Amino acid sequence: MHDDSLLYQVSELYFVQGMTMGAVADRFQVSRSTVSRMLALAKERGIVTVSLRMPSSPSDLLSRRMHDLFGIRIHVAGTARTAPAAQRLEAVSRYAAHLVGEWVTDGSTLGVAWGTTTSQVASHLQPSTVRDVTVVQLNGAAGPHSTGVGASSPVLSTMARAFNAELYAFPTPAFFDLEQTRTLLWQESSVRRILAVRSAADLAVFSVGAFQGPVLSQVYSEGHLSPATLRSLHENNVVGDMCTVFIREDGTYADIDLNRRASGPTPSELARIPRRLCVASGRHKVRGILGALRSGAVTDLVIDDRTATQVLAHLETQTPARPTAAAATTHQLD
């Protein structure tokens, strides 16, 4: 029977110093088969342990780089190099649906912003057995030319069915004509009840809207904004919206006039929800994604690998955006 000291010496020569089994056999004047048995015995006794490390994938590297920059959880969906925009949106939506399915537990309140991306996320949710779940609409959807039901109802009802949840719709305009109207409506008891449920959410799911791109955000494609309003937003360096609240690339939003008439929660209000999942894909959303991350409204980002690479490339080639004085006045909208 070989003692542990001898087994250690044999193992050190073979595994650490890289000697061949024949050379080790010659050193100890034993046969190669004896060395083989000694190495096997060293493993059995725990003298030699074996560990495997999965090599980092490109998605893992992207996730770590973005996490280091923004300090939030980054979930990168890997896609084929030649995948078109629709397939990349499909990949991030499927990934996000998996995460939402894991995070929603008994008694959860899930806040959802309607839109093209969240509609895709909802379509990939699997039926769950959780109980006492609430789904609440984060922002209004009605506009000058429609009730908004066609945009908001499918995503909300699909999510509610997946979790057998009680649904709280938010039947208000996406944007009010007058700030005073919004202020008055927010005082109505029926609206205050929905706002209270919205504030009690423990998970929010939303995307970043963009002014252009292969898959247009519904806020911009369904007539909510006039050409004059769009020009004003461009003049204010707006790069997108979250929950119908417009943001700049540096994450500021408080001094954008239209936000005083918006129905959705501000980034500051979103930040009070424990977990906030932003789902985004596409080069046209790169600046909006940066604005969302810098606003403090996001704890988790699901993004595809190409868009993540484009976000990092944009950061490397542009002067870093810094919060302006408007950042100090975010409380004015809360």
From TrEMBL:
Alphabetized InterPro entries for the sequence: NagB/RpiA_transferase-like (IPR037171), SorC_transcr_regulators (IPR051054), Sugar-bd_dom_put (IPR007324), WH-like_DNA-bd_sf (IPR036388)
Molecular function in Gene Ontology: carbohydrate binding; DNA binding
Residue ranges of every copy of the Sugar-binding domain listed in the record: 62-313
Signal peptide: none
Keyword DNA-binding tagged: yes
UniProt keywords, alphabetically: DNA-binding, Transcription, Transcription regulation
Family: Belongs to the SorC transcriptional regulatory family.
Annotated protein name in UniProt: Transcriptional regulator
Record organism: Kocuria subflava
High-level lineage: Bacteria, Bacillati, Actinomycetota, Actinomycetes, Micrococcales
